[in-house]
Amino acid sequence: MPCYFKNLTKLKIDPIPLESHKNFKNPMEIIDVNLYNPDLVKFLKEVDIYIFEMYSFFSMPYFRQFIHTDGNRGDFVRINWAYCKGISHMCWYEPKEDITQNIKAGYTGVARPYLKWNLNQVNMVASDEIKFPTLVQLGTPHNVFNGDHERLCISVGLKFISNDLRPTMDQACNKLSFWL
After folding, report:
1. What does pTM read for this prediction?
2. Which of 63, 114, 137, 144 is buried most deeply by CB count within 10 Å?
3. H-type helices in the chain, by residue range?
4. pLDDT for the residue 20
5. Domain extents for the chain?
6. CA Rg, the chain, in Å?
7. How far apart are CA 119 and CA 108, in angstroms?
8. According to DSSP H, which parts of 56-163 are helical?
9. How far is residue 71 from each of residues 114, 118, 174, measured CA to CA in Å?
10. What are the backbone dihedrals phi and psi of residue 176, each rounded to the nearest 5 degrees, phi first?
């Protein structure tokens, strides 16, 4: 069975200063590189990884995101930090074999491509409560929902310094094993 998430339980630093969290109240925003935590940048650089983009995702209570794939399907990950006072669940799905059409393509509010899936086109294969910084698989259909609380997610996009490619889940787990 593929790995859809890995908790980075030993990662004890935040991606941006905590005091800047109050500034992110839009559904999706690009985070300015000047806010990146220099310790995180340094640690990632030591394992041949750099941050190519960082977003904030803000959601209101009882938010349920539509099922989507970031960009095209594939095997690539981000590190997500979820800040909330309750449950934040992430679910992953696999497309049904007979579904090959009617997958809608679109762009986020910050001009990033996605594929949108209907529930009848996928089967849920994994789910986890996001409590720690977590490596999350984004090349597979997925969505997030939260309970009776606001949720802020800081999502960090990773690429290798040596070849400018996004790491797969296995590669990221290998490189970041000291945080698992």
Report:
1. 0.93
2. 137
3. 38-45, 169-175
4. 85
5. 5-64+73-92+128-179
6. 16
7. 20
8. none
9. 4, 16, 24
10. -105, 20
